[in-house]
Amino acid sequence: MNEAGCYTQNVMSWLLIAVTAVHVIVCLILILVVLLQSGKAADLAGAFGGMGSQTVFGPRGTATLLSKATTVAAGLFMVTSLSLGILANGHARSSGSVLENRTKKAAPVQKKTTTMPLNLPSSNGSAPAPAGPPAKK
């Protein structure tokens, strides 16, 4: 392989590693942001003396900040997922389509063979005649 092809393959490998690392970080952020969000019932719990509505940013500020963070993290997750799919597809070695491989690996045609009929014992108890070519007349 020439130097340009080797360089391109090396860059693609590093790009795949970098996008994978970003993807893992985005996944962790997305999990964290989703778990930090309070459910719809948290405001109802706060009305009955629960501590669900007493947050650092206030009851409405957190939802807006976390919902924006969720939207950004979900968008980045989709972009990195598509990028990894495209990079992995370009990185894999293809051996052609399934239909091309099927025609190349077709089963060999078997030769037609003639079989001699089996001589089964008759009902009168006599031994069967030996199988062989027909007698000449």
Describe this structure in words.
The structure is a single chain. By secondary structure, the protein is an all-alpha fold. It has a domain at 3-94. Helices cover 57% and strands 0% of the residues. The chain is built from four helices and no strands. It has helices at 3-36, 42-47, 61-91, 98-104. Helix 1 runs antiparallel to helix 3 (61-91). The longest helix is centred in the N-terminal third of the chain and has 34 residues, at 3-36. The protein is elongated.
Q: What attributes characterize this protein structure?
A:
137 residues; mainly alpha; 4 helices; 57% helix
Distance between the termini: 75 Å
Give the overall shape.
Answer: elongated
Question: Percent range for helical residues?
Answer: 55-70%
What is the C-alpha radius of gyration, as a whole number of Å?
Answer: 36 Å
Structural class based on helices, strands and sheet pairing: mainly alpha
Low-pLDDT segments: none
Strand content: under 5%
What is the string of helix and strand elements? HHHH
If you average the pLDDT, what whole number results?
A: 74
Number of helices: 4
Total number of beta strands: 0
Report the biggest beta sheet as strand number plus sense, adding barrel if it closes: none
